[in-house]
Amino acid sequence: MAEPYQHYIDGEWVSGDGSETFESENPATGETLAEFERGSPSDIDQAITVAEAAYEEWRELSRIERAEYLWDVYQELRDRTDELGEIVTKECGKEISEGKADVVEAAHMVEWAAGDARHPSGDIIPSEIAAKDAYMRRKPRGVTGCITPWNFPIAIPYWHMAVALVEGNTVVFKPAEQTPWCAQIIAEMFDDAGIPPGVFNMVQGFGDAGNAIVEDDRVPTVLFTGSAEVGHKIAGKLGDVSGRRVACEMGGKNAVVITEEADLDIAVHSAVMSSFKTTGQRCVSAERLIVHTDIYDEFKDRFVEIASNVAVGDPLDEETFMGPLIEAEHAEKVARYNELAREEGVNILVDRTELDAAEIPDGHENGHWIGPFVYEADPDADLRCISEEVFGPHVALLEYDGDIERAVEIQNDTPYGLAGAIVSEDYRQINYYRDHAELGLAYGNLPCIGAEVQLPFGGVKKSGNGYPSAREIIEAVTDRTAWTLNNS
Ligand code: NAD
User: Fold this and answer.
1) CB-based contacts of 260: which residues, under 8 Å, 6+ apart?
2) Tens digit of pLDDT for each residue in 403-437?
3) Ligand 1 atom closest to 418 (CA)
4) Any idea what DSSP says for residue 326?
5) How far apart are CA 109 and CA 126, in angstroms?
6) Which of 203, 281, 352, 372 has an alpha carbon 20 to 30 Å from 391's alpha carbon atom?
7) Torsion sign, CA atoms 336, 338, 342, 344
8) Identified catalytic residue from 249, 327, 389, 438
9) Of 341, 318, 331, nearest to 371 (Cα)?
């Protein structure tokens, strides 16, 4: 049996306290991929200690010098896109095109951050006094804790870390416990790039390791992406007045609004992609379809037909549209929500919670398979199934009558505000939605899917706290100083 993979601390592969290990699993087959050391709070403590020490020299380099290490990482992401995309797919079950897209998005983010190193930083600001020069200058904040989810296991860590590093912070990275192999590759890339010891550190592990970052006052900044449940817990611990800061990107209960002016082909395509792509396990996936009464029946027939027949398959197969859920525990959670919807009295249209053996691809019997679950509900009903994020192919059809104002009222009737889409050929409706839907990301006549690193990406309300784009992550990982100089 191979030795378990280790943590990466102070430029070395180390076992940490080495008392426990865990395994990474292929969710499509149930096969064990590799074994990893499970990081403890004392391993995090060690990583923070070395990251704090390394910060003193790292911050003295120019931004352009720091970015040089990132360019090496960028090149590796580009050269190895296909190979790494396959690893993403094997470890997190995304369809292979999505596995590769994860790596490409990571490359875009690293390119953005490293390229930004040559752009101006700070501002020259006018002063009321002629002989005074005034500037806004940025300073790094120190050790940045990066706590990331499993569903974009290469892209999101780089989304956090590339900007933090270029701005002069050091990093302690605690990846998701479901995707340690992807995290191992990220650490190998920084090692290959020769990043100075202690600047980038990775401790594999679970929530207790993440919590040890959050609890440690030596970490002024935490960049977190994951569930609202965990994010709100973290935000509660990092009080606003302590000088510590957390940027949280969390989940949603996203919706596609389909008005009476929609092109039905576009509507069906948007709904199917938004609800079932990556088996509903994207933060932007839509679990609510808000459909105007005039086209409701026709839309429902077409959507239900697809939901009843869409096949699950081996995610490594280019033809596969829907892969597995990430792990047994998550499949159980999705099944429980399907059951909850039944108990809450909704009208069930498609229930493929339990797939027939014949529907499961050969050799994949131990994967975590769940098919679409589709139901109709009253948009005004107080139901948990239409309010809480399920993170699976669990979809409510909500019929509405009236104008776009009514559709947007339903769209906004959620504590979340991450993403949403509208399908309509009427520009008044589209403009109303654009201006009034409470969302960080809004898509018009498109699926509710997609991120580009130069655009904001992040939610409002319970879905995020305002650091949604690469440029805003700069705000999270730097302090601004007003610097004034007497020039007389
Ligand atoms: P999760 O919240 O369970 O875990 C995220 C990370 O937090 C993991 O690394 C986990 O180990 C760590 N963690 C767990 N408990 C912790 C604690 N008490 N203290 C510190 N760290 C802790 O999320 P997940 O299941 O990995 O990912 C799915 C969720 O992420 C969904 O809700 C999805 O919507 C959200 N998400 C949001 C975005 C976005 O950009 N808005 C992107 C991707 C995923």
Assistant:
1) 292, 293, 294, 295
2) 999 999 999 999 999 999 999 999 999 999 999 99
3) 41
4) S
5) 33
6) 203
7) positive
8) 249
9) 331
- Angstrom CA distances, 45 to 13, 48, 57, 165, 200, stand at 16, 5, 20, 20, 14
Q: What pLDDT does residue 341 have?
A: 98
* Residue with the two structure tokens 């784009």: 469
Q: Which of 148, 216, 225, 327 to mutate to test the pocket of ligand 1 (most atoms within 8 A of CB)?
A: 225
Amino acid letter for position 88: V
Residue 339 bears catalytic tag: no
CB 232 within 8 A of CB 463: no
At residue 2, the pLDDT reads: 80
Say what percent of the chain tops pLDDT 70: 99
Tell me the CB-side half-sphere exposure of residue 43, using CA atoms within 13 A: 28
Residue 466 near residue 472 (C-beta atoms within 8 A):
yes
pTM listed for this prediction:
0.97
Position 364, amino acid:
H
Residues with CB under 6 A from ligand 1: 147-152, 174, 176-177, 206-207, 210-211, 214, 225-227, 230, 233-234, 249-251, 283, 389, 391, 418, 458-459
| 105 burial via Cβ count (<10 Å: 0-12, 13-18, 19+) | buried
Q: From the CA of 147, how far away is ligand 1's center (Å)? A: 8
